[in-house]
Request: fold
Amino acid sequence: MSNDASPRHFLRHAGLVICINTLIAACLVVSDAGKTFLSQFIYAQSIGLVTWALIDFGRFAIQRDPDSGWPKGWRAIALPAFGVTVGNIVGSVIGDLLTGLDRMSVLHHHSTREMLGHLLYFGTIGGVVAYFFWATGRAKHFAEVIATTRREAAETQLMLLQSQLEPHMLFNTLANLRALISADPNRAQEMLDHLIAFLRSTLSASRTVQHPLSTEFERTADYLALMKIRMGERLATDLDLPGDLAGAMVPTLLLQPLVENAIKHGLEPHIAGGRISVHARRDGRHLVIDVRDTGVGLDAAASAQGTQFGLEQVRKRLSTRHGDLATLTLSAATDAAGGTLASVRLPLETP
Amino acid sequence: MNATALIAEDEPLLAASLQAELRGQWPELAVAGIAPNGPAAVAMALEHRPDVLFLDVRMPGRTGIEAAQELAEEWPEGTPLPLIVFVTAYDEYALRAFDLAAVDYVLKPVRADRLALTCTRLKEGLAKRRGGASDTLDQLRQLLGGAVPAASTRLTVIQASAGNAIHMVRVDDVIYFEAADKYVRLVTAEREHLIRTSLRELLPQLDTQRFWQVHRGTVVRADAIATATRDESGKLTLSLRGHTDKLPVSRLYSHLFKGM
Reply:
């Protein structure tokens, strides 16, 4: 818990305990007219505060469950029980000292039954109060967890969007579109269609979690079509999706960051340009997708910033869905053409 | 005599569109060619010696800024440098640097009214230049001066691997650094090392008060310079303390050596 051990936390709890103690004292005066309010108040406060302090500070000496800030298992019961028992005895002694009464010795003259009754009575009160604190602590903790998770999810979504909608790419694409409008209106229209599809998929990717591989390939094709118009002769592409894998479900925008990396860090800096190929294949019960470029290679690209975020995102989303069953590897291509190979491997899921 | 221009832009459509746009705004300007990447931009500019150079900032092989720097150093003595206009789609960092250095730039997509302003400025610049003055060098100096943000960490020791040993070279022992392809040569009084990094990445981690860049590919420790000698053509050469190498100073950095 974030503010579990802060002074503010203890002050707030102490204040609550004092209020509850006062309430108990008032109840006792009403039910047992033989005692003055002051003496009941002093006993209630000393028993209550000692009990609370033993439990609230005692928590930190015992291995705690991170979800509630309380001890785990049987200790969760043992700690309040111990606190209530010792709190009663120590609290009564302190009460005796403060009021000049002699409740402890009075207690000795009582029968065992009365003693047990007394303990049960205060034990119930202590238990209820302890349970109240435990429950509120847990609720508060989970509220914090939810808030943090939400914030992180929103941040990730924003960063994903930012990495997808890189301004440089967007403005360059628009500049090309503007040039095409007068030079070749038909191609301009075609380019605009690709841009619209690309933008739509980018913006909606944060809302859908999975879609068919054929859709993912279409989006990849949109992006590559835009890049082809921009890079002209310098970019060759080939996409290969076997028919029986078209329906396989994959996380949305799975390939987008990989293809973008291949272009931005592999082919764009390469004076001669090159080829990017995206191939899907079945490997037993796995689906494997290779994104291969013939660009400048990993060494040259490694110094470039910005590769990591996209890859990190892909890894994160794969492991959220498939744990250790899915992998993403990035390696130098081994044949003469050179360049980089990004390979995604995930369990084959057909609807 | 009509002005000539060269366009360096890796995206064919944008290059063609800028050329068409220029034809409309400034019909007398003869575009000598379109360079599709950084190295080609340098080579073509040296070959055609245009009056005006439109340089895309992000190009394969060399950035527009690197190409400008290389040109300034390779440009033949006695001929004025071209006026440079940078072209960029979106690059906050570059834009700030351009503003500081007062170089002209246009944003992609290039708008007619904005390009008209650039053409007017270029014509004025060329008219002034016919009289002999050239601001291009000053602008580039400022651009490059502003282009090296100081890194938060200063290097004191450089680890140079050789075979299976790693030499710990004290930065204070380095007489000069020289860019060599993908490596940087570290020259000390006793020996030299190669490290796998670029001079551009190394520069921000050096104390610029003590290490001076004197050429696109050379950074020298200032207190290791013994003399700077100027030959009859105006070229500066440095002799060093503790080493027999002579280092040429490029035009961009000759202002560092003024004498007192």
Notes: The first strand of chain A starts at residue 64 and ends at 65. Chain A touches chain B through 24 residues (CB under 8 Å).
